[in-house]
């Protein structure tokens, strides 16, 4: 049996979802190299379990990948916390900084006014609840549909739309 079509299919999935997963994880970890490592681990895990993927309850391959990415991110966070319990200064070296993330997000932008707006936007998003931050990351940074976000979070699409509207109103008031 020829396994080449599976690899070609996985390469297409990789090409489609790598930028979305990277943007999502970068927004979470706010450190370029850590984001790259987590996304790489996500695809390694996906490749290892690709044969067992089955769409459930309307879940897509994208929501499956984002679930793996989220769990990989959470596993990495747990490792950081364990290291910090052993050595207090370890967290300072491993934890991402807001300034680092902002530098990454605005480095291609030359306009100082736009850079300032991006900084204000991220600081505003950081004031939202964890759930609101997550929905904004998935919808606007990762570019997922309500259906995919629903499959990933377990929250109904209508509820997601309300949550997103509420979060955006909070952001508008703060900005």
CATH superfamily of the domain at 1-95: RNA polymerase sigma factor, region 2, helix turn helix motif
Mean pLDDT reading = 76
Helix percentage range: over 70%
Roughly how many Å apart are the termini? 58 Å
Number of helices: 9
Beta-strand share of residues: under 5%
| Residue windows where pLDDT falls under 50 for at least 5 positions | 1-5, 83-102
**Which assembly state applies to the chains in this document?**
single chain
List its salient traits.
mainly alpha; Rna Polymerase Sigma Factor, Chain: A; globular; about 80% helix; about 180 residues; single chain
Structure description:
- This protein has 175 residues and is mainly alpha-helical.
- The protein has a domain at 1-95: Rna Polymerase Sigma Factor, Chain: A (Orthogonal Bundle).
- It contains nine helices and no strands.
- Helix 7 crosses helix 9 (157-174).
- The termini are far apart.
- Mean pLDDT is 76; it is low at 1-5 and 83-102.
Q: How would you summarize this macromolecular structure in one to three sentences?
A:
By secondary structure, the protein is mostly helical. The chain has helices spanning 4-29, 32-49, 61-86, 90-94, 98-106, 112-125, 130-141, 146-153, 157-174.
Helices, strands, pairings?
Elements: H1 4-29, H2 32-49, H3 61-86, H4 90-94, H5 98-106, H6 112-125, H7 130-141, H8 146-153, H9 157-174
Helix pairs in contact: 1-2, 1-3, 2-3, 3-8, 7-9, 8-9
């Amino acid at each position: 049996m020829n396994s080449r079509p599976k690899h070609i299919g996985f390469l297409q999935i990789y090409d489609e979802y790598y930028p979305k997963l990277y943007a999502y994880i970068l927004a979470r970890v706010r450190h370029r190299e850590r984001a790259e490592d987590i996304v790489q681990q996500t695809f390694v895990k996906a490749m290892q379990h690709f044969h067992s993927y089955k769409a459930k309850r309307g879940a897509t391959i994208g929501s499956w990948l984002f679930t793996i990415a989220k769990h990989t991110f959470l596993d990495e966070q747990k490792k950081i916390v364990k290291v910090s319990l052993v050595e207090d200064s370890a967290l300072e070296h491993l934890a991402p900084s807001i300034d680092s993330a902002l530098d990454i997000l605005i480095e291609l932008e030359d306009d100082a006014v736009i850079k300032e707006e991006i900084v204000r936007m991220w600081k505003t998003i950081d004031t939202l609840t964890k759930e609101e931050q997550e929905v904004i990351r998935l919808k606007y940074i990762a570019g997922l549909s309500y259906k995919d976000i629903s499959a990933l979070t377990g929250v109904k699409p209508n509820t997601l739309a309300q949550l997103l509207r509420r979060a955006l109103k909070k952001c508008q008031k703060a900005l």
